[in-house]
Design goal:
seven-stranded mixed beta sheet; 7 strands; 212 residues; alpha+beta; Aminopeptidase
Length: 212
């Protein structure tokens, strides 16, 4: 049997800089509505640049790693102030990254997922609907299949929500794919409810929960 098949209990701990590569890999391995997205990308780091790296650098105190005997197998990342986070993402984090990225695709629609994310990283269009004012914090969580179905997701969300409450956040939101019924059920069981608001990302559902 492989090490993945024999992985034992996992622990949730604060993020460490040495985790970065492994957490990028988790992001890619769960990036297609919870399924492996490796086949969708030529550059496997692009998804992590968009959804993992900024949190590790801008909000390290709100970044947590799930680790078992094989290694990092999940993460929960967040911010207590989405407006501030996206401002820093655009003005502090992206400029240095862009210097090492290929140019954005020219002339119209992206031809594949690499071009779509390159366009977003070079010229992000991030808007926060007025309905999110009551849910200023947000989070991302991903767990590899080997650690799913064992209660770790619930524990990870609870860990981050405790940290958000300690920072004074009054509400938290997240986005989930409309095709990902399993994830939607998970969040609803944790007290998240749909938020009726327009988003820039088609096919995504907004869910929110008041805190504490």
């Amino acid at each position: 049997m492989s090490r993945t098949e024999t992985a034992r209990g996992a622990c949730i701990r604060p993020y460490r800089p040495a985790d970065r590569e492994a957490l990028y890999a988790v992001c890619l391995a769960t990036g297609d509505d919870g399924e492996d997205a490796t086949h969708l990308f030529r550059d496997g780091n692009l998804l992590g640049h968009r959804y993992v790296g900024p949190y590790l650098d801008l909000e390290p105190e709100l970044s947590f790693t799930l680790e078992d005997d094989v290694g990092a197998c999940g993460y929960v990342l967040g911010t207590d102030d989405s407006v501030r986070f996206y401002r820093r993402f655009e003005h502090e984090w992206l400029p240095a990254l862009r210097a090492n990225l290929p140019p954005a695709p020219a002339g119209g629609a992206a031809k594949d997922e690499d071009e779509r994310l390159l366009a977003e990283l070079h010229a992000p269009l991030i808007t926060l609907p007025r309905e999110l004012e009551a849910y200023p914090a947000h989070l991302h969580i991903d767990i590899l299949p080997r650690a799913q179905g064992r209660g770790y997701g619930r524990q990870m969300v609870a860990t981050l929500l405790t940290a958000l409450v300690e920072r004074g956040a009054c509400g938290v939101h997240l986005g989930v794919g409309q095709r990902n019924a399993r994830a939607q059920g998970f969040y609803r069981a944790l007290g998240f409810t749909p938020i009726e608001a327009q988003r820039d990302e088609p096919g995504a559902l907004l869910l929110g929960r008041r805190l504490p």
